[in-house]
Amino acid sequence: MAPRYYTVSWEQLHRDGKALAWRLMDKGPDGGPWRGVVAITRGGLIPAAIVARELDCRIIESISVVTYDEEERGKPQVVKPAEAAGDGEGWLVLDDLVDTGTTAKVVRALMPKAHFATVYAKPAGKPLVDTFVTEVSQDTWILFPWDTEQQFVAPIAKTAKS
User: Does the active-site annotation cover 99?
Assistant: First the structure.
């Protein structure tokens, strides 16, 4: 089956990031503030910035796990660990999307005590996430604003004739 595409604008990502922050407000250690935020790069950088701002969290760490080359999956590799977060206790780990859960499994193994949140979740990866905003079907490829640009599209009437 051909994948479906779902385009997310900067404005929608910002709204969804704020919605995620609302859901995370009282989920920090003992209902208090998070010790810090860990962004899974690259996709989690922008959502982490939005959520960290909304939760008034100034400590932001990153972890880089490479699993994709364009649209092809490969074996996950941690190319930059989140050393400041230790085992994750009191830390919030953020990513843009959980797909199959491959990245989430790697990060959870390194930070088992962290709270894992994503903006978007697919069914296969959803069980690995503690908090998310929007579920999309497994065959949906999300086109994030940093991966797309606006361009002219011909009217349907003009493209249907060819």
Answer: yes
